[in-house]
Amino acid sequence: KWFGSSASSFEKYKCESSAEAIENKRLGRATTLAINESSDPADTEEFWTLLGGQGSIKTAEEGDAPVDDEVGEGILLKLSEVNGTLMCAEIARGDLTTDMLSSDDVFIVDTMAEIFVWTGQDASDYEKRSGIRTALAYLEQAGRPAHTSITCFKEGKKIKNEIWNNIFSEEPTTSPAAAPSTDSAPLFSFGPAAVETKINDQFTKYVEKVESGYVLGYKNVSQTAFKLTLNFDGSSNMSLSDYFGAEAVGEFGISKAIGFDEMLCVKVSAVDPTQAYSYKMSMEGESV
């Protein structure tokens, strides 16, 4: 992992988390080495060799310089909780107006150069907690740079951001373009190919389709840490792999202590890929 001299604490934290995730996925067969921009060249030779040699490094100003874009144009997405499931779908693009916003939801505005998250005062707690997480997942799905700026606003607070005010002109010169149809499925359901369903005030159930199987598990959305055990019943035609840092319990179970916004999950695959498999997932645990 390489840290630029002007990297923010958040960027360093995300780098550390990603490196740790790779170590866990490879079951300890991988180790990480921290390299700073100011490190001795003799200590970084192998790193640069793997990248084809050391080139010029952009300054923070050059790296964060916005691309040319039409600030007056934006994509508006609405984040809402529907029957316990978090959904995010595009509702308009083009010239946007404030009457497109509603107090009971959270909205994401994509300007290509910057992301805005606007939280309505009557949005549910689940929606409010999920604004930034969803914006980050949206950037990942769209293949956008992880360092793209995300700015948050709350309804009722005066917004002085010039870009926001340029986008949300009160009298648009053209009508917003129609959003893609979402009759069959939402454009975006909490991350690429993922669905997160609220169970109670402590946990959500997480399901994501991945290559050759699914990632299944639970996420802690409370402020209390829990030691959880996840068990599968009727699982003779399935296999478990990639425990994401959890411990195996028996043949079809995993266990892990998770704090706020952390997950206990596992990848599940069919033993016979020509046959569909079914599962029954149960969770038990206690606060720690």
Automatic annotation (TrEMBL):
Q: InterPro entries, alphabetically? A: ADF-H/Gelsolin-like_dom_sf (IPR029006), Gelsolin-like_dom (IPR007123), Villin/Gelsolin (IPR007122)
Question: Entry's Pfam families?
Answer: Gelsolin
SMART domains recorded:
GEL
Q: Which residues form a coiled coil?
A: none
Q: What is the designated name of this protein? A: Gelsolin-like domain-containing protein
Q: Name one GO molecular function term.
A: actin filament binding
Which part of the chain is the Gelsolin-like domain? 94-152
What organism does this protein naturally occur in?
A: Octactis speculum
Report any one BP term from Gene Ontology: actin polymerization or depolymerization
Cellular component (GO) terms are: actin cytoskeleton; cytoplasm
Q: Which domain of life is it from?
A: Eukaryota
